[in-house]
Every structure is written in structure tokens, then in C-alpha cells.
Amino acid sequence: MPELPEVETMVRGVRPYMEGRLLKRLRRYPCRRKPLSFTPDFPQIARTLKGRIVREITRTAKRIVIQFIAPGSEAEALYQYLVIEPRMTGLLLVDDPPSREHLRFEFEFTDEEEDESRPNVSYWDRRGLGTVTLYSQQEFDAFLKSGRLGPDALAISKEELYEKLQRTARPIKVALLDQKLVAGIGNLYASEILFLCQVHPETPANRIPRRLIKRLHLAIREVLETAILYEGSTLGDGTYRNVLNQDGSYQNEHRVYQKEGALCTRCRCQKIERIVQAQRSTFFCSNCQKKY
Ligand SMILES: [Zn+2]
User: Fold this and answer.
1) Which of 66, 101, 136, 232 could join 248 via S-S bond, C-beta 3.0 to 4.6 A?
2) Whole-model pTM?
3) Identified catalytic residue from 118, 215, 274, 280
């Protein structure tokens, strides 16, 4: 957490407050908690981005990508990319934060005559595990080509998914969390996806019959896209918030995640079970989800 739907929700939420605006300064808040990881260091990032314009804000896997251009120049060679990975507890906000003490930095934009009321965008991180990296165009291209991230979970084709799963005998639940295989799925949504397509989480990835790959591929899209519509999942700890500091609502749609002992909503005769795979909890129905 946050996974693809939560990061996509953040990106969509801050887009109207960022795109086309000129950065007056990147302001760091004094924070006595674990410091974020900045590459290069914060002063250098702030110096580089000052006076630049946000051209576009997008998402790649579980990362936020903010593209900056120099005013008056569309030259690609001058693009800069600020990539934020919120990891466990990072949030982008345009409203008051859940707590002042965990505010980390703020994008302070110049006031515009036509609409001076547009708020700035801040980054909040309770545990401080988030990372912030500035890339030049060349460095960003190299990062994308490095293979550290596989195809995005909302963009991967059925064929690509099949080929990648053929190459590993790891349990399908564990394989879906491998960001090099498919990027964006985390622990929560992996359980929900496998419940929806009725595949047992311990099935070796390369044993899933070809005809079921279509169902798995559809389930990935359906779960992630629906979760985006519901603005992500805010769990019991209340950490994840949308950009207006409000709860997401997909947690009300969870069928298996953290439902251990509850009656399965599909078969209504078996209780949801929990197992541990690669040190992470997996939730499933042993009656509905078939092992191959
Ligand atoms: Zn069931």
C-alpha cells in the first residue's frame, strides 16, 4: 500500500492543481521523523526545478511521475522527471494533511491572476519510507529500459502475461507481486484478483492453463479499474487518503482481503482462509479457488 489504484487516484486528484503551473519553489518542511530518501539531495532537486513548469503528471506502476519543462522551451533534452514512490504511507494532498508533523515538502506554485485560489500540492509521509528521485530525460529513459519495472498491470497483454508466467514456477500470488514481471499489483489486490478469477494462490504460475490466462488477465483489469473508480482502499489504520484527505471506498468491496473466518461471498459454504506466502498474508476461498 499504496498500490496501483491508490497511486492512480493521487495522480488524477492532483493533475488539475499541477499541470501547466510554474514552480515558484519546492519547500521542505522541518520534520523530525525518519527523513525521506532524495536523489540527488533535496537542495539540488529544489534548485533544478525552481522556475520550471509542470508539463504532465502520470503514473508508472506504483510511482508518480511529474514531468517538468523549462519555460519557453519544448526541447525534449531539457525535460526533467521527478519520480515519487510513496511506498508504504506516502500521500499527495491538496487539502489539510492528516497530521502536520509528517508533512515533508510542498510544491509552491506561482499565483495566477485568473484563479489565485488554486492550492499548492504537498507530500505527506508518516513512516518516511517514500523515495523521491530526479531524472534528466536521458536518465529517465535509461530507468524505463533498465527492466526494473515490467509492463504496467493495466497495459500488459494476455500474451505477454502468459509468456511471463510460463517462465516461473513460483506460486501465482508471489509471481503477481514481482514488479519485474508485471508492475503495479501489491499484496492486497493480488488476493482479490485471484479470488475473482478463481485460481488458488499456491498454483505454480507456469501450471495455469492457457485458457485461464484470459480470465486472470480480465480479473487484473477489473479489480484494479474498479478500485480506481472507488478511489482506492483505506484500511483499518486509516493511512491511505485521497488528495482531499478523505477515505477511499474500495475497502467496502473487498471479498477476501483481511476477511479470514468470514463466509465466502461466492459459495457461501466455506470460510475465507489466510496463509503466508513469501512473508505476506494471502486470503482465499479453498472451495472457489482451484489449484492446478
Ligand atoms: Zn467460496
Assistant:
1) 232
2) 0.95
3) 280
